[in-house]
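Long-time lurker. I teach an intro course on protein structure, and each term I like to show students one example going from raw sequence to a predicted 3D structure in token notation. This year I'd like something fresh instead of my usual example. Would anyone be willing to generate the tokens for the chain below so I can use it in lecture? Attribution to the forum is fine with me.
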Amino acid sequence: MIRIGVVGGGFLSGDVLEKTHSDDHANDLGARIVALADPVPSNPGAVKAREMGLRVTRDYNDFLTPDSDIDFVIVMSSDKKIYEEILKKKPGHVGVLPYPVFDMLWRAATLDEARERARKEEIETILNAIEDFIVVITPEREIVDVNEAFLRKMGYRREEVVGRKCHEIFQILPEPCEGVDFVCPLEQVIRNRRADQQVLTRVDHKGELRHVEVSMFPIWGKEGELSRFIEISRDVTDRLQQEEKVRLRLEKMVEARTRQLRETHEKLLHQDKMASLGKLSASVVHELNNPIAGILNFILLMKRILDENHMDADGIARFLQYLELMETETRRVSRIASNLLSFSRQSKIELKRIDLNRLLDKTLMINQNLLKINQVTVNKSLSPDMPMILGSEDQLQQVFMNLISNAVEAMEGGKGGVLQIETRRLPEDAQVMITFEDAGIGIPPENIPRLFEPFFTTKKKGKGVGLGLSVAYGIIREHEGEIHVDSVPGKGTKFEIVLPEKRKNGGRHEHSQDSHSG
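-- Reply from a regular --
Happy to contribute to a lecture. Here you go:
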């Protein structure tokens, strides 16, 4: 170890002593300053040397005696005479470094340090100006640096953070992130050997939970080992709370809007029901007024005949004709009322097993007079292997009656025709099919989509209110079946009814015609 004596106690010597006197520096340099000579004890270098426990003398000649333990003298005084005098008096084993040379070497040595210090200050300024949190962590989980944003937002002082374990600060846990509901980002980086990003909760100095968006980056050493972790994070608690407020506000707006729409929908339904009721009332009044007016006219005619005592054979014949017409009109009124009740009434029906072939024969027998008057011939093709089905005999008979009546009316202007009625089993689908096909005037294609709508009719005035097919459609749907129509204008119309062999819902059944669809 080279023992150095410094001549001069100014600011320069004080700076040199401050930066080189530690054991680490001495070992690195292989030399140590052990003494200082200055005639003025109050000079900064002299004061610093005494504080450090060095030997301080007023005369540098003490370093130049033959028994001196000084190996090297550094002149830190700009007085050239001092250097020249030391050079003349020094023993041969003592080296001397003049002030200009030392000043040059010291400036060169401290220039990089000044630059490094300026660069460090610049980096610290930049990091402290960033609002994101920046934390430097060692592989041993120790925090070695943080920026001002982290300290300010998390409410810590630097000395409370630097040197502490990250889990002690972030989670207030004695051990590395045990029993938490997230994966430690450091563990993710170590496991995947790449950066990790996630949103997690942390605890501030007050013990309050904060939501933090964390990006953890690894810094690798020259040998490929993990040297540091750089964590860049931001507190998103306020943002998430604001988003939650916005979400709740939107939910309330949606609920309010949904409530308004529901109220509007109910009003529209009510208006639609009132409009339908008005339409129904007008149609029913119109349809009932015609036959009632006719009946009233016949009654007046019959009273006049009786008043005039014209009850001869011709009078009796007219009476019979009037009675027959009155009967027809009365049946028409009954049919209108029956269809209306079937469409609007909710009723409980008793389901039972039905032989469809027998029911069709019964319906045709009831309508044989209608078929005969209109010169309609019926061709039946009833399958003998038809199974019994579960349903309402009265309602299915009403469907058959409506379809037969419609077929007859469709062929009324053609002086008769043929009505094909067929039943067959569809075993692959566990269903049965009933077909009614007439040779009437047919239905225009544009009318087919509306055919089952309530009050829609293509019949002439006085022939109906458009409820028959709507009633039939509802009955078939209540029997878990389907009804289809195919028509060619001028050639005829075919209705196909498909019913299941077994109902999904058996026994007593609530039947509501309000569920009819167009």
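Some talking points for your students: Confidence is low (pLDDT under 50) at residues 508-518. The two ends are 110 Å apart (CA to CA).
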